[in-house]
Amino acid sequence: MRPHSINPKEDSLVGRIYIAPPIDEVQLARKAQPFVDNFEGRIPTASELTMITRDHDVDLATMAFHQAVRAAKDNKNFVEAIDRQAIGGTVNKRITMLILPALFYEEHPEVGGDGAHIASVARACGIDAHVVPTVSRGGLDDDIPIIRKALQDVKDGEIWLLTLSKGATAWRCLLQQRSDDIPLERITTWFNVGGLPIGCQLVDLMTRSRLRRIKTRAFCKVIRMDYHSFCEFGTANPRLQETVHMPEHLRIVNVVGSPLTSHVEKSMQTRFLMLKHLGPNDGMVLLPDALWLPGAVYPVLGADHFFRGSQISSLLYRLFAYVFAASDKK
User: 21-328, what's its fold?
Assistant: First the structure.
Protein backbone atom coordinates (compact mmCIF):
# COMPACT_ATOMS: atom_id res chain seq x y z
CA MET A 1 0.00 0.00 0.00
CA ARG A 2 1.40 3.40 -0.94
CA PRO A 3 1.58 6.30 1.52
CA HIS A 4 -1.65 8.18 2.20
CA SER A 5 -1.41 11.63 3.75
CA ILE A 6 -4.00 11.98 6.49
CA ASN A 7 -1.81 12.61 9.55
CA PRO A 8 -1.82 16.29 10.50
CA LYS A 9 1.73 15.95 11.81
CA GLU A 10 3.09 14.53 8.61
CA ASP A 11 4.68 17.84 7.52
CA SER A 12 7.34 17.23 10.15
CA LEU A 13 8.41 14.18 8.12
CA VAL A 14 9.03 16.09 4.90
CA GLY A 15 12.57 15.47 3.74
CA ARG A 16 13.24 12.76 6.30
CA ILE A 17 14.67 9.46 5.06
CA TYR A 18 13.93 7.74 8.39
CA ILE A 19 11.76 8.70 11.34
CA ALA A 20 14.69 8.70 13.77
CA PRO A 21 18.47 8.19 13.80
CA PRO A 22 20.01 4.86 14.87
CA ILE A 23 20.09 4.08 18.57
CA ASP A 24 22.01 1.73 20.86
CA GLU A 25 19.86 -1.39 20.49
CA VAL A 26 21.91 -3.32 23.05
CA GLN A 27 21.03 -0.79 25.74
CA LEU A 28 17.42 -0.76 24.57
CA ALA A 29 17.29 -4.55 24.91
CA ARG A 30 18.67 -4.30 28.45
CA LYS A 31 16.07 -1.70 29.31
CA ALA A 32 13.31 -3.93 27.91
CA GLN A 33 14.40 -7.05 29.80
CA PRO A 34 12.58 -6.26 33.09
CA PHE A 35 9.33 -6.02 31.13
CA VAL A 36 10.05 -9.37 29.50
CA ASP A 37 10.75 -10.89 32.91
CA ASN A 38 7.40 -9.60 34.15
CA PHE A 39 5.64 -11.32 31.25
CA GLU A 40 6.82 -14.63 32.79
CA GLY A 41 7.29 -16.58 29.58
CA ARG A 42 4.28 -15.33 27.66
CA ILE A 43 3.77 -12.93 24.77
CA PRO A 44 2.41 -9.56 25.97
CA THR A 45 -1.10 -8.44 25.17
CA ALA A 46 -1.93 -5.45 22.99
CA SER A 47 -3.03 -3.45 26.05
CA GLU A 48 0.26 -4.15 27.85
CA LEU A 49 2.23 -2.96 24.83
CA THR A 50 0.05 0.13 24.50
CA MET A 51 0.74 0.93 28.14
CA ILE A 52 4.51 0.62 27.69
CA THR A 53 4.26 2.85 24.62
CA ARG A 54 2.25 5.43 26.56
CA ASP A 55 4.45 5.39 29.66
CA HIS A 56 7.78 5.16 27.80
CA ASP A 57 7.95 4.98 23.99
CA VAL A 58 7.13 2.71 21.08
CA ASP A 59 10.74 1.55 20.66
CA LEU A 60 10.87 0.14 24.18
CA ALA A 61 7.51 -1.57 23.64
CA THR A 62 8.70 -3.02 20.32
CA MET A 63 11.89 -4.39 21.82
CA ALA A 64 9.94 -5.86 24.76
CA PHE A 65 7.59 -7.55 22.28
CA HIS A 66 10.48 -8.88 20.18
CA GLN A 67 12.34 -10.33 23.16
CA ALA A 68 9.18 -11.71 24.74
CA VAL A 69 8.30 -13.60 21.55
CA ARG A 70 11.78 -15.08 21.43
CA ALA A 71 11.62 -16.08 25.11
CA ALA A 72 8.00 -17.29 25.28
CA LYS A 73 7.69 -20.78 26.79
CA ASP A 74 5.73 -22.16 23.86
CA ASN A 75 7.96 -20.52 21.27
CA LYS A 76 11.53 -20.41 22.59
CA ASN A 77 12.55 -23.83 21.33
CA PHE A 78 11.29 -23.04 17.83
CA VAL A 79 13.20 -19.75 17.63
CA GLU A 80 16.40 -21.35 18.88
CA ALA A 81 16.02 -24.24 16.43
CA ILE A 82 15.68 -21.82 13.51
CA ASP A 83 18.75 -19.90 14.69
CA ARG A 84 20.74 -23.16 14.81
CA GLN A 85 19.46 -24.49 11.50
CA ALA A 86 22.15 -24.88 8.87
CA ILE A 87 21.69 -23.42 5.41
CA GLY A 88 22.03 -25.93 2.61
CA GLY A 89 20.53 -29.09 1.21
CA THR A 90 17.37 -29.64 -0.76
CA VAL A 91 14.10 -31.43 -0.12
CA ASN A 92 13.84 -35.03 -1.29
CA LYS A 93 10.13 -35.17 -2.04
CA ARG A 94 7.68 -33.21 -4.16
CA ILE A 95 6.58 -30.00 -2.48
CA THR A 96 4.75 -27.19 -4.25
CA MET A 97 4.83 -23.75 -2.67
CA LEU A 98 2.15 -21.24 -3.64
CA ILE A 99 2.98 -17.64 -2.73
CA LEU A 100 0.06 -15.23 -2.29
CA PRO A 101 1.32 -11.70 -2.95
CA ALA A 102 0.70 -8.38 -1.23
CA LEU A 103 -1.36 -5.42 -2.39
CA PHE A 104 0.13 -3.41 -5.28
CA TYR A 105 2.74 -6.05 -6.04
CA GLU A 106 2.48 -5.36 -9.78
CA GLU A 107 2.56 -1.57 -9.50
CA HIS A 108 5.57 -1.62 -7.16
CA PRO A 109 7.71 -4.69 -7.91
CA GLU A 110 10.69 -2.96 -6.29
CA VAL A 111 9.04 -3.49 -2.89
CA GLY A 112 9.10 -7.27 -3.24
CA GLY A 113 5.42 -7.82 -2.49
CA ASP A 114 5.20 -10.35 -5.31
CA GLY A 115 7.37 -12.76 -3.33
CA ALA A 116 9.64 -13.45 -6.32
CA HIS A 117 12.71 -13.39 -4.07
CA ILE A 118 11.02 -15.89 -1.75
CA ALA A 119 10.22 -18.16 -4.69
CA SER A 120 13.89 -18.02 -5.70
CA VAL A 121 14.98 -19.22 -2.25
CA ALA A 122 12.35 -21.97 -2.25
CA ARG A 123 13.46 -23.24 -5.67
CA ALA A 124 17.07 -23.31 -4.48
CA CYS A 125 15.82 -25.61 -1.71
CA GLY A 126 14.25 -27.96 -4.26
CA ILE A 127 10.70 -26.69 -3.79
CA ASP A 128 8.48 -26.08 -6.82
CA ALA A 129 7.49 -22.47 -6.04
CA HIS A 130 4.95 -20.32 -7.85
CA VAL A 131 3.62 -16.81 -7.28
CA VAL A 132 -0.18 -16.94 -7.56
CA PRO A 133 -1.35 -14.12 -9.91
CA THR A 134 -3.91 -12.52 -7.62
CA VAL A 135 -5.35 -9.12 -8.54
CA SER A 136 -2.77 -6.57 -7.48
CA ARG A 137 -5.31 -3.90 -6.58
CA GLY A 138 -8.07 -6.39 -5.89
CA GLY A 139 -10.24 -7.26 -2.95
CA LEU A 140 -11.11 -10.56 -1.35
CA ASP A 141 -13.71 -11.62 -3.92
CA ASP A 142 -11.20 -10.98 -6.70
CA ASP A 143 -8.49 -13.10 -5.11
CA ILE A 144 -10.32 -16.04 -3.56
CA PRO A 145 -11.32 -17.72 -6.87
CA ILE A 146 -7.78 -17.30 -8.19
CA ILE A 147 -6.31 -18.94 -5.10
CA ARG A 148 -8.86 -21.76 -5.27
CA LYS A 149 -7.95 -22.43 -8.93
CA ALA A 150 -4.21 -22.39 -8.14
CA LEU A 151 -4.72 -25.00 -5.41
CA GLN A 152 -6.86 -27.17 -7.67
CA ASP A 153 -4.13 -27.08 -10.33
CA VAL A 154 -1.65 -28.77 -7.98
CA LYS A 155 -2.51 -32.37 -8.84
CA ASP A 156 -0.19 -34.24 -6.50
CA GLY A 157 2.33 -33.88 -3.72
CA GLU A 158 2.51 -31.76 -0.60
CA ILE A 159 1.50 -28.08 -0.73
CA TRP A 160 3.02 -25.24 1.26
CA LEU A 161 1.32 -21.82 1.28
CA LEU A 162 3.21 -18.61 1.95
CA THR A 163 1.08 -15.49 2.32
CA LEU A 164 2.27 -11.89 2.23
CA SER A 165 0.15 -9.10 3.71
CA LYS A 166 -3.36 -9.27 2.14
CA GLY A 167 -2.67 -12.81 0.92
CA ALA A 168 -3.30 -14.02 4.48
CA THR A 169 -6.71 -12.33 4.54
CA ALA A 170 -7.85 -13.97 1.31
CA TRP A 171 -6.55 -17.42 2.29
CA ARG A 172 -8.17 -17.15 5.73
CA CYS A 173 -11.53 -16.33 4.08
CA LEU A 174 -11.18 -19.24 1.64
CA LEU A 175 -10.23 -21.56 4.47
CA GLN A 176 -13.25 -20.64 6.58
CA GLN A 177 -15.56 -21.50 3.67
CA ARG A 178 -14.65 -25.13 4.45
CA SER A 179 -14.89 -25.89 0.77
CA ASP A 180 -14.36 -29.47 -0.39
CA ASP A 181 -13.09 -28.38 -3.81
CA ILE A 182 -9.55 -27.60 -2.63
CA PRO A 183 -6.95 -30.27 -1.70
CA LEU A 184 -6.94 -29.26 1.96
CA GLU A 185 -5.49 -32.56 3.15
CA ARG A 186 -2.35 -31.93 1.08
CA ILE A 187 -1.82 -28.38 2.38
CA THR A 188 0.57 -29.11 5.23
CA THR A 189 2.22 -25.77 6.01
CA TRP A 190 1.17 -22.11 6.05
CA PHE A 191 3.88 -19.45 6.34
CA ASN A 192 2.14 -16.25 7.40
CA VAL A 193 4.61 -13.45 6.64
CA GLY A 194 3.46 -10.02 7.80
CA GLY A 195 -0.11 -11.10 7.18
CA LEU A 196 -3.43 -9.45 7.92
CA PRO A 197 -5.45 -12.43 9.20
CA ILE A 198 -7.89 -10.20 11.10
CA GLY A 199 -7.62 -7.16 8.87
CA CYS A 200 -5.70 -3.97 9.33
CA GLN A 201 -6.19 -1.22 11.89
CA LEU A 202 -4.64 1.23 9.46
CA VAL A 203 -7.69 0.78 7.21
CA ASP A 204 -9.87 1.37 10.28
CA LEU A 205 -8.10 4.68 10.95
CA MET A 206 -8.36 5.73 7.31
CA THR A 207 -12.14 5.22 7.37
CA ARG A 208 -12.90 6.27 10.94
CA SER A 209 -14.51 9.64 10.23
CA ARG A 210 -16.47 11.20 7.39
CA LEU A 211 -13.53 13.43 6.43
CA ARG A 212 -11.13 10.50 6.39
CA ARG A 213 -13.52 8.43 4.31
CA ILE A 214 -13.72 11.25 1.77
CA LYS A 215 -9.92 11.42 1.61
CA THR A 216 -9.64 7.65 1.37
CA ARG A 217 -12.17 7.52 -1.47
CA ALA A 218 -10.06 10.08 -3.31
CA PHE A 219 -6.96 8.01 -2.58
CA CYS A 220 -8.62 4.90 -4.01
CA LYS A 221 -9.52 6.79 -7.19
CA VAL A 222 -5.93 7.88 -7.61
CA ILE A 223 -4.60 4.33 -7.20
CA ARG A 224 -7.51 2.87 -9.20
CA MET A 225 -8.70 0.55 -6.46
CA ASP A 226 -12.33 0.01 -5.58
CA TYR A 227 -13.09 1.78 -2.30
CA HIS A 228 -15.26 -1.05 -0.98
CA SER A 229 -12.54 -3.60 -1.80
CA PHE A 230 -10.08 -1.44 0.13
CA CYS A 231 -12.42 -1.32 3.13
CA GLU A 232 -12.67 -5.14 3.14
CA PHE A 233 -9.24 -5.17 4.79
CA GLY A 234 -10.51 -3.31 7.85
CA THR A 235 -10.97 -5.25 11.06
CA ALA A 236 -14.73 -4.58 11.07
CA ASN A 237 -15.33 -6.71 7.98
CA PRO A 238 -17.97 -9.29 9.07
CA ARG A 239 -16.07 -12.02 7.22
CA LEU A 240 -13.13 -11.41 9.53
CA GLN A 241 -15.34 -11.90 12.59
CA GLU A 242 -16.24 -15.45 11.64
CA THR A 243 -14.73 -18.47 13.36
CA VAL A 244 -11.97 -20.22 11.45
CA HIS A 245 -11.56 -23.95 12.02
CA MET A 246 -7.91 -24.67 11.36
CA PRO A 247 -7.21 -28.20 10.11
CA GLU A 248 -5.36 -30.15 12.79
CA HIS A 249 -2.66 -31.25 10.36
CA LEU A 250 -1.86 -27.68 9.20
CA ARG A 251 1.43 -26.35 10.54
CA ILE A 252 1.38 -22.55 10.84
CA VAL A 253 4.57 -20.52 10.98
CA ASN A 254 4.17 -16.79 11.65
CA VAL A 255 6.97 -14.43 10.66
CA VAL A 256 6.57 -10.90 11.99
CA GLY A 257 8.72 -7.82 11.51
CA SER A 258 9.52 -5.72 14.57
CA PRO A 259 10.82 -2.32 13.39
CA LEU A 260 12.09 0.41 15.69
CA THR A 261 11.50 4.01 14.64
CA SER A 262 15.08 4.13 13.36
CA HIS A 263 14.34 1.23 11.00
CA VAL A 264 11.23 2.65 9.31
CA GLU A 265 12.05 3.92 5.84
CA LYS A 266 10.49 6.84 4.02
CA SER A 267 7.43 5.34 2.35
CA MET A 268 6.28 3.63 5.56
CA GLN A 269 6.69 6.58 7.95
CA THR A 270 3.22 8.12 7.88
CA ARG A 271 1.47 4.79 8.35
CA PHE A 272 3.80 3.72 11.16
CA LEU A 273 3.17 6.97 13.03
CA MET A 274 -0.60 6.73 12.52
CA LEU A 275 -0.54 3.42 14.42
CA LYS A 276 2.17 4.38 16.91
CA HIS A 277 -0.22 5.49 19.68
CA LEU A 278 -1.71 1.98 19.67
CA GLY A 279 1.68 0.36 20.18
CA PRO A 280 4.31 -1.58 18.22
CA ASN A 281 3.47 -2.02 14.56
CA ASP A 282 5.14 -2.85 11.26
CA GLY A 283 3.73 0.15 9.40
CA MET A 284 0.54 -1.67 8.44
CA VAL A 285 -0.53 -3.96 11.27
CA LEU A 286 -0.21 -3.94 15.06
CA LEU A 287 2.27 -6.63 16.04
CA PRO A 288 -0.10 -8.48 18.44
CA ASP A 289 -2.68 -8.65 15.62
CA ALA A 290 -0.10 -10.37 13.43
CA LEU A 291 -0.04 -13.19 16.00
CA TRP A 292 -3.78 -13.88 15.93
CA LEU A 293 -3.14 -17.20 14.21
CA PRO A 294 -1.96 -20.19 16.25
CA GLY A 295 1.46 -21.66 15.60
CA ALA A 296 5.13 -20.85 16.00
CA VAL A 297 6.41 -17.28 15.68
CA TYR A 298 9.71 -15.93 14.42
CA PRO A 299 10.21 -12.19 15.03
CA VAL A 300 12.57 -10.20 12.79
CA LEU A 301 13.96 -7.11 14.48
CA GLY A 302 14.37 -4.26 12.01
CA ALA A 303 12.01 -5.54 9.32
CA ASP A 304 8.84 -3.57 8.61
CA HIS A 305 5.76 -4.65 6.65
CA PHE A 306 7.77 -4.76 3.42
CA PHE A 307 9.85 -7.57 5.03
CA ARG A 308 13.22 -6.43 3.73
CA GLY A 309 16.71 -6.69 5.20
CA SER A 310 20.04 -8.42 4.86
CA GLN A 311 18.93 -11.29 7.10
CA ILE A 312 15.79 -12.22 5.18
CA SER A 313 17.22 -14.65 2.60
CA SER A 314 19.19 -16.65 5.15
CA LEU A 315 16.16 -16.76 7.45
CA LEU A 316 14.01 -18.16 4.63
CA TYR A 317 16.58 -20.89 3.88
CA ARG A 318 16.62 -21.88 7.55
CA LEU A 319 12.84 -21.79 7.91
CA PHE A 320 12.24 -23.97 4.86
CA ALA A 321 14.95 -26.45 5.87
CA TYR A 322 13.66 -26.68 9.44
CA VAL A 323 10.01 -27.17 8.46
CA PHE A 324 10.92 -29.82 5.89
CA ALA A 325 13.10 -31.71 8.39
CA ALA A 326 10.39 -31.52 11.06
CA SER A 327 7.63 -32.71 8.71
CA ASP A 328 9.81 -35.45 7.27
CA LYS A 329 10.17 -36.96 10.76
CA LYS A 330 6.41 -37.44 11.10
Answer: Rossmann fold (3.40.50)
| In contact, 319 and 191? CB cutoff 8 Å | yes
Tell whether the model's pLDDT for residue 238 goes beyond 60: yes
With helix as H, strand as E and coil as C, how does the chain read? CCCCCCCCCHHHHCCCCECCCCCCHHHHHHHHHHHHHHHCCCCCCHHHHHHHHHHCCHHHHHHHHHHHHHHCCCCHHHHHHHHHCCCCCCCCCCEEEEEECCCCCCCCHHHCCCCHHHHHHHHHCCCEEEECCCCCCCCHHHHHHHHHHHHHCCCCCEEEEEEECHHHHHHHHHHHCCCCCCCHHHEEEEEEECCCECECHHHHHHCCCHHHHHHHHHHHHHHCCCHHHHHCCCCCCHHHHCCCCCCCCCEEEEEEEECCHHHCEHHHHHHHHHHHCCCCECCCCEHHHHCCCCCEEEEEECCCCCCCCCCHHHHHHHHHHHHHHHHHCC
Q: Say if strands 158-164 and 95-100 run parallel, antiparallel, or are unpaired.
A: parallel
Q: Is the torsion defined by CA of 97, 101, 107, 109 positive or negative?
A: negative
Q: What is the pLDDT of residue 329?
A: 67
**292-330 pLDDT, tens digit each:** 899 999 999 999 998 988 899 999 999 999 999 987 666
Rounded to the nearest integer, the mean pLDDT of the chain is: 91
CA angle 106, 112, 114 (to 5 degrees): 50
Give yes or no for a contact between 252 and 246, defined as CB atoms under 8 angstroms apart: yes
Judged by average pLDDT, the poorest of 61-75, 146-160, 172-186 is 172-186
Percent of all residues in the chain with a pLDDT value above 70, rounded to a whole number:
95
